[in-house]
Amino acid sequence: MRTLLIWLPLALFLGFIALFASGLFQPDDRIIHSRLVGQPLPAFTLPAAASDRPPLASSQLATGQPRLLNIFASWCVPCAAEAPQLDALKAAGAQIDAIAIRDARPDVDAFLKRNGNPYARIGLDARSEVQIALGSSGVPETFVIDGEGRIAYQHIGEIRADDVPMILDRLRAAQ
Amino acid sequence: MKLILLLFALIATPLAAQTALPPAPYADQQLADPALERKAKALMETIRCLTCQSQSIADSNASMAGDMRSQIRERIMAGEQPEAIRAWLIARYGDWVSYEPTAAPILWPLWAAPLVLLGLGVLLLRGRIKRKARSS
Q: What is the pTM of this model?
């Protein structure tokens, strides 16, 4: 028993080294996924964010057909970078609505003029309230909403060109 | 020269400013009622900022943290209990968003650790005292 105990500190020490080493080599996942995936959208009604698009309410997302809900902001650089992918999704038949976070109408108008406007409706969430209610932790994010208004999928970060087929698959799966 | 520098300092905008919007009403303004403000502050100190991730929203300058502070103050002012707001946030962001450990089974070892360590200490002490009594 004694002789075994003598090795205990060394074993503990090696155990800690192994723990820290595995922590060093494991990729760090800092993405916070919404816990609302699979659940109904929280109810919200937002004013219009752009001059030439109608406002957005949660009830308008449950249309019997799956839709995309894009969370963006005019001040967000990756949001401008994902604009061509949103156009491609729209061209492939996706219905896209959006919520502009912490934004102002002139800024959204300028952003849409610069980057194109694939959105059917755009709601203005000036104080991130709906964003927090959705469990979204940043911009851009894109939610797939099924026909009954449930969140089917959350894509965090910009949509890259090679994400487009996956998003279309998710839309089909939410049918 | 000094005056010019001072002028520059006055008009300089913070590099990390994320939006041109003014902060939400209660992002940086305390509630009028000190008791409610204390409640809100205690909650804000244990809610994690989603942007900075290792700061509480009480410490963070991120605009989203400001919006969360304002929302918490307004909800406390409307009579909501801090723990209800915490539960609401956890339902959206997971346990991750709260710095306050919960009583979930995965945390039982954490709560048990002080007792286990204390028990080990008592055992160790007893052994020592016994040995000392024998040798003297």
A: 0.81
B-chain CB neighbours of A127 within 8 Å are: 24, 67, 70-71
Contact A102 B67 (CB under 8 A): yes
Report the residue of chain B nearest A137, measured CA to CA: B50
Q: Are residues B127 and B85 in the same domain?
A: no
> Do B132 and B78 fall into the same domain?
no
Q: Hey, what amino acid is at A132?
A: I
CB contact under 8 A, B93 and A73: no
Burial of A73 (0-12, 13-18, 19+ CB in 10 A): buried
- DSSP label at residue B41: H
Q: Give just the sign of the alpha carbon dihedral B13, B19, B23, B27.
A: negative
Whether residue A129 lies within 8 A of chain B, CB to CB, comes out as yes
Say what the ipTM of the complex is. Answer: 0.85
Any idea what the CATH number is for the domain that residue A143 is in?
3.40.30.10
- Tell me how far apart the alpha carbons of residues A162 and A71 are, in angstroms, rounded to a whole number: 19
Any B CB within 8 A of A156 CB: no
pLDDT tens across A69-82, in order? 999 999 999 999 99
Same domain, B40 and B95: yes
